[in-house]
Amino acid sequence: MRILSLVTNGRSVFYRQQRAGLRERGHEVDTLAVPGYATSGDRSWTAYARYYPRVVAAAFDGYDLVHANYGLTAPPAVLQPALPVVLTLWGSDVLGRYGRVSRYCARFAEEVVVMSEEMAARIDRPCHVIPHGIDLDLFRPLPQAAARREVGWDEDVHHVLFPYDPSRPVKNFERAARVVDLARARTDEPIELQTAGGLDHDRIPLYMNAADAMLLTSVREGSPNTVKEAMACNLPVVATDVGDLSDRLADVAHSAVETTDGDLAAALCETLASGARSDGREAIADIGLQTQLDRIERVFSLALDWV
What we know:
By secondary structure, the protein is an alpha/beta fold. It has 14 helices and eleven strands. A six-stranded parallel sheet has the order 2-1-3-4-5-6, with helices on both faces. It has a five-stranded parallel sheet with strand order 8-7-9-10-11, with helices on both faces. Helix 7 packs across helix 9. The radius of gyration is 20 Å and the shape is elongated.
């Protein structure tokens, strides 16, 4: 297939993994990004006004379909008159500020992909639930002692990993710090809260294997890749009840989903006291990157059959 891929941020690791995987399978995937990349995620309306004619012009350049990634690329995707559209929604584009735009435009796409059942329930049409796939060769269990030496962490401390840049408000680092403070007050064991902002993606497995637990306190999520990556490393996860995490972590050892700071702290203490790894890798064996690509290819084929 020859695919015109629309994206607000072509730097996203999971987007680049998917694009590379599709190219390896023989598809031609050309990325057309919204101009004026902003680290905050906000652009002026004029950037999107300039984007629309570029999408229309590209749509008449011999492509088979448009793949719109993230809800803010949906308006130009569904308004171009030439090609069928597959719309992939990532999470905050349904559950956050611009959710209404995404939900409205989803009505006009041939096929819609979402990350979780929670997202699907917000969309007034049938959807394909296809979480982003995980590179199970990169994210795998490693010896903890060696990983700690590599990242320079103290061997005699419990290390809790906050897997995001602390400056991102939706990830709620302040709450993570509160939870760790509460956990410290409940135990005599030293606990350090570590962050993973700014790390190269191929270094993150080292930090996940060096940590004793991962703490996720996001305000909202779809199907967060960081949790699945942690599971692939058998790193226990303690998280707020967002996205698909209550289902994904329900039967995973030494992991928990809670709603209050006190319950998060208690679950974290229990996880650290166990000193054990999770069995998360077994639970995500079916969402490796190749499985995701198989399912995405089928959705593309459905969109083409629609025409």
